[in-house]
Amino acid sequence: MIVGGEAELALLLHLFPEGVEELDGAFAVYAEEPPIGFDMIEAEDVREGWEDAWKDFHHGVAIGRLWVGPPWEPPPAGLVPVVIDPGRAFGTGAHPTTRLCLELLQEAEPTSLVDVGSGSGVLSIAAAKLGFAPVGAFDLDEVAMETTAANAEANGAGVNVLDELRPAALAVMNIALDVVEGLLPKLRVERAIVSGYLERDDPRAAGWQRLDRRVLDGWAADVLEFRP
Question: Are both 43 and 119 inside the same structural domain?
Fold first, then answer.
């Protein structure tokens, strides 16, 4: 399937971790099955080696004092490297919601943290490298948990992969709005950095109040505090 527009690249990497490739000013996305909610414009058999071709278009990004990038690209000097091989789990550092969460993490006082919906583990690994401790990561998807564990080990980061949600001073969630709103009442935390939704969205949950908001390319992230 071919879609146009450079602005879509980060979102496509989110939706199609199997591969995204730039072709003649548009983007080709690779998937084993036709994606739900997308109109098929063009489909064809792909060339041999397509599974790795997308790596040529996936580069690291600098976010404050962090660098988030793939293992096939050397990190620049002077930045804290967070090396992420996303595999089939969301979280490469390219998407605006990930960037916003990482920006807000760098402004937070390091404390205990739980990464809810960890995906590739980018947020929990970055938190551990920024001095947060202890850091836990939780996801319902087994592939995401395996990816988080592998990426944490590769980074030498102290991230505990959890089999259930546990208390912490701070939670970070980069997931869909309805999931954020559904999970906030279940968390045993004092504050939360949340994202995964558009600027027009406003997460609401009883007892939670917004302390800060950041926006980027139409996406938003919020710092919330629980005040019973």
Answer: no
Residues 93 and 121 in one domain: yes
Calculate the alpha carbon distances from 116 to 127, 165, 184 in Å: 13, 8, 10
48 and 140 in a single domain? The answer is no
List pLDDT tens digits, range 161-179: 999 999 999 999 999 999 9
The pLDDT value given to residue 53: 58
Cα–Cα dist 123/105, whole Å = 8
89 and 126 co-located in one domain: yes
- Tell me the two tokens of residue 171: 């939670």
pLDDT in tens, 197-217: 999 999 999 999 999 999 999
Mapping DSSP to helix (H, G, I), strand (E, B) and coil, where does residue 186 land?
helix
How far are the Cα atoms of 1, 102, 134, 170 from residue 142, in angstroms, in the given order? 28, 24, 22, 23
Place of tokens 């007892």: 207
Q: Tell me the two tokens of residue 185.
A: 């009442």
Full-model pTM: 0.77
Counting other chains too, the contacts that 17-22 makes at CB distance below 8 Å and 24 or more residues apart are 17/86, 17/87, 17/88, 17/89, 17/90, 18/51, 18/88, 19/50, 19/51, 19/53, 19/54, 20/54, 20/57, 20/58, 21/50, 21/53, 21/54, 21/56, 21/57, 22/57
Considering the domain architecture, whether residues 131 and 181 belong to the same structural domain is answered as yes
Same-domain status, 203 and 123: yes
CA pair distance 90, 95, nearest whole angstrom: 9
